[in-house]
Amino acid sequence: MSVSQKVVLRYPPSLTEKPVVYELVKKYNIMFNILKARFSADDKEGLLVLELSGTNTSLKKGFDYLHKLGVKTELLSQDIVRNENKCVHCGVCSAVCPTNAFYVKSPEMYVTLEMARCIGCEECLKVCPYNAIEISFDIK
Amino acid sequence: MSKTIEEINEKIKQGKAVVFTAEEIIDVVKKEGIKTAAKKVDVVTTGTFGPMCSSGAFLNLGHTKPRMRISKAWLNDVEVFCGIAAVDLYIGATQITQNDSANSLHPGSFQYGGGHLIEDLVAGKRIKVKALSYGTQEYPRKELTGSFTINDINDAFLFNPRNCYQNYNVAVNTSKEKLYTYLGVLKPDMGNANYCSAGQLSPLLNDPDFRTIGIGTRIFLGGGIGYVVWPGTQHNPGGLRNEKGVPRSGAGTLAVLGDLKQMKPQWLRGTSVLGYGVSLTVGIGIPIPIIDEDIFRQTCITDADILAPIVDYALDYPELSGRILAEIDYASLKSGVIKIGRKKIPTFPISSYVKAREIAQSLKSWIEHGKFFLTHPSAALPGKDSGVKFKRFGGKYR
Fold this sequence. Notes:
The structure holds two protein chains of two kinds. Chain A is 26% helix and 34% strand. Chain A is α+β, with helices and mostly antiparallel strands. Chain A has two domains: 2-77, Alpha-Beta Plaits (2-Layer Sandwich); 79-135, Alpha-Beta Plaits (2-Layer Sandwich). In chain A, strand 2 (31-39) and strand 3 (46-55) form a beta hairpin. Chain A is globular and about 50 Å long. In chain B, the strands form six sheets. In chain B, strands 3, 4, 7, 10, 15, 16, 17, 18 and 19 form a nine-stranded antiparallel β-sheet that branches. Chain B has a four-stranded antiparallel β-sheet with strand order 6-5-8-9. Chain B is globular. The chains are: A alpha+beta, B alpha+beta. Chain A binds chain B through residues 88-92, 94-96, 103-104, 106-111, 126-127, 129-131, and chain B through 49-51, 109, 111, 184-185, 192, 194, 269-274, 279, 281, 334-336, 346, 348-355.
């Protein structure tokens, strides 16, 4: 059975020239979709947000491979958090969310977050008037 | 049937007042009918929670030793108005920090400003103060650097010159570029429509002729108690109304005041609006005493009865053309999608209906528990026949 996970990868500069993602495909038969790729200005860290699909076994092996290389992995859902104390359920985020991960549930009008739809684009972070979106995958 | 405020207050005192929110009352009336419900209900509570830029707070810091007549001051790097007595200040909600790069890199993010300062103050946080003076013989001190909390100062009261808009524009963008406005991000080609009103819960839509809400009305303000003190700036009661007497555009506004020391930071939130600036999101709830069947009928208004104008924020709003593209009701707006001509447009709220409901519920609970009593207005707000009108700038300019 194929499963899909959105993952944040952080890797050291020593790996920037290694075809890490290619190896994931070739050795472990993992499909990928790039959601985001970045390098810090001082080249201290690279960051990739990927949607990875494969069997449970292949994904596990793929993660083992990444960890052995020194790549740190986190689930995207752990890295994007809505601070419930700060959120007022206004709906400003839902207006810019390209995948409707944030949407206003009518008629109660609660702003709901469907994490499975999130692609980590950070549009919500930029517009939230109350600073209620916390993203920890920004390059430090 | 008619009731006096005194009779209603007596029932509140005895814990017998029948109170519903302006949202709950809609179902009550559906089940029981207007006439039966009108006899039973004593108070309908309303609520609204949205960015209200025309807000601010007066502070009196207390005198330093030696005395100082502050002529310029910054609190947490936000400049405050000092053109009044010695240590009185006014924090304006939209004032940005002095080193904010604003929109020089558009859209600016506006992380901190007057609104945030007011929230921090109410939260009891320590506020940095820097002040200057030109010095006088009786006020010799010329500089002050220090810090304080709200408990250290004499007075702190919220005084918002224009809050609680009766109704509001729905914003769209007909241009080819994305717009960053105080009504949120507007995508090109009318990619979205943003609106900002609690609709059927909104205070002035439940008493559209200001029959019970007037100068002196006691209200829920920022989680504490406040008062309506004047018609708000740009109060424009004479605008178009629908067949139920409900304004079809902005119309009435309120100036409100209350002691900041008893308010809650949860109901006064510093607000950063991308590409626009900072503001203060204010929680206001107003009780409507059911003095007769007519006022009761008005509190039973539903989202489907309230129309708002759809305005193009690419052209017509900045140019003050006065043109509206269409009118749309709040039931459609809240459904998440509207149609202009043949185009389907997704809709998004800017004010929080969830929090508006919470405010109306809190006020209901205060009244039910005998903690909040209703007031007679000392004077009426200018109504639809008063001739009071919103004017464009009437001075001279080039």
